[in-house]
């Protein structure tokens, strides 16, 4: 496995872990009767704020992860891995790891800054693939 692919694999594991934790929290808050249902109605109990934030943080990673994966795979397939691309991939992973507690704990405006670092890391990967 190349050095650029390692952060991609770890980001995938982070994604799974984030899903498990957010799902567990939602199940505790609204109950398995709701979480295993087709969810045609609103839950009878409300989620805690931190649970809703964890689910939104997970949804955000659903949106960002494909861009990161595409950028890393583009670098890998074209053989353009370098110190810059490896660093950018690791910075993305670290930023996403910090984003989860930043969102859950309501770190404003830091959560947005952390998100920007992750997005800039993806941009660096795409730009590196072009030059």
Automatic annotation (TrEMBL):
The chain crosses the membrane at residues 62-79, 86-106, 112-130. InterPro entries: MAPEG-like_dom_sf, Membr-assoc_MAPEG. GO terms for cellular component: membrane. Its main location: membrane. It is found in: Membrane. Keywords: Membrane, Transmembrane, Transmembrane helix. It comes from the Bacteria. This is Inner membrane protein. It comes from Celeribacter baekdonensis B30.
């Amino acid at each position: 496995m190349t050095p650029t692919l390692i952060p991609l694999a770890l980001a995938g594991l982070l994604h799974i872990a984030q899903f498990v934790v957010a799902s567990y929290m939602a199940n505790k808050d609204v109950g398995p009767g709701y979480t295993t249902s087709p969810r045609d109605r609103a839950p009878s109990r409300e989620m805690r704020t931190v649970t809703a934030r964890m689910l939104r943080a997970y949804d955000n990673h659903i949106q960002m992860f494909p861009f990161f994966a595409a950028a890393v795979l583009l670098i890998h397939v074209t053989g353009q891995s370098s110190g810059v691309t490896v660093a950018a991939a690791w910075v993305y992973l670290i930023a996403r790891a910090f984003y989860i507690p930043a969102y859950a704990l309501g770190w404003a405006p830091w959560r947005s800054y952390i998100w920007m670092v992750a997005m800039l890391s993806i941009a660096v990967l795409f730009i590196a693939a072009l030059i």
